[in-house]
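Example 9 (inverse folding). The structure is encoded as follows.
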């Protein structure tokens, strides 16, 4: 399958695995890349030396292209960028910041740069900054999200209408049918997060994976907009947030409740009570834990079946 995204990344299928905090280590990234997609190492939960180790292991585990996701707000961003350059990584997804900051420097070293956005406004700013492609992520997505609550079904065609560079859809996509829908709306490829959390290779804790599989419609909600909007599975920690909101808290109160290490505690250490459990709405459609290669295969089979079904309309 050849299009703008497969050509840009030199991959077989236009499926990108999201760089998810505490889930996207070298094992998952290499497995997705070996299966024909684009695996991404999530740098957000890694110290610089840890990221370096993951990149080196990923290079040994796959000969296929893979990338690194870098939140621009990362405190050690200078070291992270230098490691990426030194290790010869060829694809970088940036997020949570101004794409102008690093795009030209990365491209100077032969690196393809993609920026993640949640609105038409920021998609155009990313294009102006010179990125090679944009990920437009809808309100359904897990983890940190846009404040405007624009759904993927609405966001993709609005971005496509004005964007001139390749477009990747994200948020609420876990099946081949969802992939086809996003591409019909104008996307050149899809970024998939939650489905790969429930993979054997994801570095997230098995307790978290099992809870994702058990999730039903309505079990996630976007919260903490005053800090950084994040979609969470509902648990005791989420209930504590809800209770605090009922008391009209100041921003400082929310920060105090969040504390430090909540995401690690929940997603990596498996504390389902006090941990922060970031996942997308599509978790209600995820019913099992599979190898990443099987997820890729299933998505492409579903994609082809959905295409054939459309031909009868």
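The amino acid assigned to each position is listed next.
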């Amino acid at each position: 399958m050849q299009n703008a995204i497969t050509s840009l990344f030199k991959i077989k299928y236009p499926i990108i695995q999201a760089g998810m905090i505490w889930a996207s280590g070298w094992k998952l990234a290499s497995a997705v890349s070996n299966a024909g997609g684009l695996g991404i190492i999530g740098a957000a939960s890694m110290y610089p030396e840890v990221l370096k180790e993951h990149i080196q292991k990923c290079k040994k585990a796959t000969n296929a292209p893979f990338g690194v996701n870098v939140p621009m707000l990362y405190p050690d961003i200078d070291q992270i960028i230098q490691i990426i350059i030194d290790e010869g990584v060829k694809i970088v997804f940036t997020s949570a910041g101004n794409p102008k900051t690093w795009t030209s420097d990365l491209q100077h070293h032969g690196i393809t740069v993609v920026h993640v956005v949640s609105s038409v406004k920021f998609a155009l700013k990313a294009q102006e900054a010179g990125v090679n492609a944009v990920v437009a992520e809808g309100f359904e997505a897990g983890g940190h999200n846009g404040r405007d609550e624009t759904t993927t079904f609405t966001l993709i065609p609005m971005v496509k209408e004005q964007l001139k560079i390749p477009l990747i859809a994200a948020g609420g996509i876990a099946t081949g049918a969802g992939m086809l829908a996003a591409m019909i709306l104008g996307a050149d490829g899809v970024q998939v997060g939650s489905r790969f959390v429930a993979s054997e290779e994801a570095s997230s804790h098995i307790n978290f994976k099992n809870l994702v599989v058990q999730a039903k419609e309505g079990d996630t909600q976007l919260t903490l907009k005053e800090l950084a909007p994040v979609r969470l599975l509902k648990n005791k920690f989420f209930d504590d947030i809800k209770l605090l909101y009922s008391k009209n808290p100041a921003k400082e109160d929310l920060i105090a409740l969040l504390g430090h290490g909540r995401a690690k505690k929940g997603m990596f250490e498996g504390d389902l009570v006090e941990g922060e459990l970031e996942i997308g709405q599509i978790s209600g459609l995820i019913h099992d834990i599979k190898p990443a290669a099987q997820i890729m295969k299933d998505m492409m089979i579903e994609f082809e079946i959905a295409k054939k079904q459309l031909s009868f309309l």
